[in-house]
Write a structure and sequence with these properties.
Four Helix Bundle (Hemerythrin (Met), subunit A); 222 residues; 10 helices; three-stranded antiparallel beta sheet; 3 strands
């Protein structure tokens, strides 16, 4: 019989289970399409079964896993439908967020984003090391997160983070930033230049083109 204290783990432990799972997922410790049991999730996260049992419904609701009859739980499978839906959701959120960001962000904030990207680009044109690729990937993700976070809307931020996990899985499986550091940094700098004009519509259009390019890369069209 299940112990009462195991039946419902405290919120902090449930969050630890979620953070641990997503961290391992993005580190490719588990892969898209892979089947996994609750016991394996316990081993993966190092957290008790009670926390995992409460984690599973959240992962199912967010589309990160699904239950397949007679086979068990499956990590989200990357297919054309997931790519199209994830990038469309990203486009809708980021275009609106960009329009607000351009109108509210301090000039110093945008200047810092430019300096960060120009530094990565300058070094990438000399030598693209694994360390630089990892740094560029973080700058890439951080750029988009900054735009969303500036809204100060927790509901949007949470929804965006879940979709961002799916986008990052797609990238890891299909494109990653390896070999694309300079092109991606240049695309971001084009968006930043549009941001510097102070025109929300212009900046949103530049960002939309960048996201469309990313979607095309994921679909193998570029």
């Amino acid at each position: 019989m299940e112990r009462a204290d195991e039946a419902r783990e405290p919120p902090k432990l449930r969050e630890k289970a979620y953070d641990s799972f997503t961290r391992h997922l993005l580190a490719s410790a588990v892969r898209p399409g892979q089947f996994i049991s609750q016991r394996e999730l316990v081993e993966l996260t190092g957290l008790p079964l009670g926390a995992i049992r409460e984690l599973v419904p959240r992962l199912e609701a967010e589309g990160l896993i699904k239950t397949v009859p007679q086979r068990g739980m499956q990590i989200a499978h990357i297919d054309l439908n997931l790519i199209r839906e994830a990038y469309q959701f990203r486009l809708f959120l980021e275009k609106e967020a960009m329009a607000v960001f351009v109108e509210t962000a301090a000039a110093e904030t945008i200047a810092a984003l430019r300096a960060q990207h120009e530094d990565i680009l300058a070094r990438a044109e000399q030598d693209t090391t694994p360390a630089l690729v990892a740094e560029a990937q973080n700058v890439d993700w951080g750029f988009h997160d900054t735009i969303i976070d500036a809204l100060g809307n927790e509901i949007i931020a949470k929804a965006y983070r879940v979709n961002s996990i799916k986008i990052r899985l797609i990238r890891q499986e299909l494109i990653r930033i390896d070999g694309l550091v300079a092109p991606v940094m240049k695309e971001h700098l084009t968006v930043i230049a549009a941001m510097e004009t102070g025109d929300p519509a212009h900046a949103a259009a530049a960002l939309a083109k960048h996201i469309d390019n990313a979607r095309s890369r994921a679909l193998g069209l570029r």
